[in-house]
């Protein structure tokens, strides 16, 4: 399950890591509508993966509810940052990196527990 939430954090970013930023600068500035489409597609993909993982790991209803609530919280925080980025109609590389930072700050919901 940790994988699905981590996948969300990684999937929601549309910019590369700072070390690779120079390779992605050619895509920025990006029209706000295109950036929003990218983010929405990544959220949909992450949600699909999360649901598949819930089924695969046969989580209880309580666990599944908790995971979905955390996912929704991550998505809400990312959407707030996306709205800031698209407000002027253009998204810069720095604004895209800010969206990514928010997704990463929230981090995985479950910490890895080694088997007993």
Output the keywords:
single chain, about 120 residues, mainly alpha, 5 helices, 2 strands
Walk me through what this model shows:
The chain is mainly alpha-helical. It has one domain. Helices cover 68% and strands 3% of the residues. The chain has helices at residues 2-11, 21-24, 32-56, 61-86, 93-106, and strands at 30-31, 90-91. Strands 1-2 form a two-stranded antiparallel sheet. Helix 1 runs antiparallel to helix 3 (32-56). The longest helix has 26 residues, at 61-86. The two termini are 18 Å apart.
Secondary structure blueprint with pairings:
Blueprint: H1 2-11, H2 21-24, E1 30-31, H3 32-56, H4 61-86, E2 90-91, H5 93-106
Antiparallel strand pairs: 1-2
Q: Whole-Å distance between the termini?
A: 18 Å
Strand content: under 5%
Mean pLDDT: 82
**Helix count, DSSP H or I runs of 4 or more residues:** 5
What are the low-pLDDT stretches, counting only 5+ consecutive residues below 50?
Answer: none
What is the succession of H and E elements? Answer: HHEHHEH
Biggest sheet: strand arrangement: 1-2
Tell me the structural class: mainly alpha
Shape: elongated
The amount of helix comes to 55-70%
Radius of gyration: 15 Å
Instruction: Please give the largest β-sheet.
Output: 2 strands, antiparallel
